[in-house]
Design a protein that fits this description.
There is one protein chain. This protein is mostly helical and 141 residues long. It has one domain. The protein contains 4 helices and no strands. The longest helix is centred in the last third of the chain and has 30 residues. 30% of the residues are buried.
């Protein structure tokens, strides 16, 4: 469980780094369509590369977080709440990402997307820390 929660945490951090780069370099609407860029499933050109990477990694991250929550819900009582909270937040993040693109970077939606990303990182960090504590001292849980 610790490795699964670490994979969730690491992938959330990677998505955040790419997202911050996209925001800082003013490439937020380099892909004006959602969920795919104009290049579709082909390898993206330089113009779309970071946006495609962000979206692809976000889908992989969501799958890892949902797998972590599913495992925790069945087998890990101590981390169930934070893992399930992470899965709810990551689902909301996907929807917010869609709204960011469809509203052409509406500032309030962008701010909500970025701040809920920080909340998602916090929940995945707590899930990892709880899993780490259980591994280090399993008799307490």
């Amino acid at each position: 469980m610790m490795w699964l929660s670490f994979a969730s945490l690491s992938s959330v951090y990677a998505v955040m780094l790419i997202g911050v780069y996209i925001t800082a370099s003013h490439q937020g609407l380099s892909c004006p369509e959602w969920p795919l860029c104009p290049s579709g499933f082909e390898f993206p050109t330089g113009k779309y590369l970071f946006e495609v990477l962000h979206r692809l990694l976000a889908v992989i991250t969501a799958a890892i977080i949902l797998a972590t929550a599913g495992y925790a819900a069945k087998r890990m009582q101590a981390i169930r709440k934070t893992a399930i909270a992470s899965s709810i937040i990551v689902s909301a993040q996907v929807v917010l990402g869609m709204f960011v693109v469809n509203t052409k970077l509406e500032p309030l939606i962008v701010a909500t997307h970025l701040s809920s990303g920080v909340l998602l990182f916090a929940m995945t960090l707590m899930t990892f820390l709880f899993a780490y504590r259980i591994i280090k001292n399993p008799t307490q849980y």
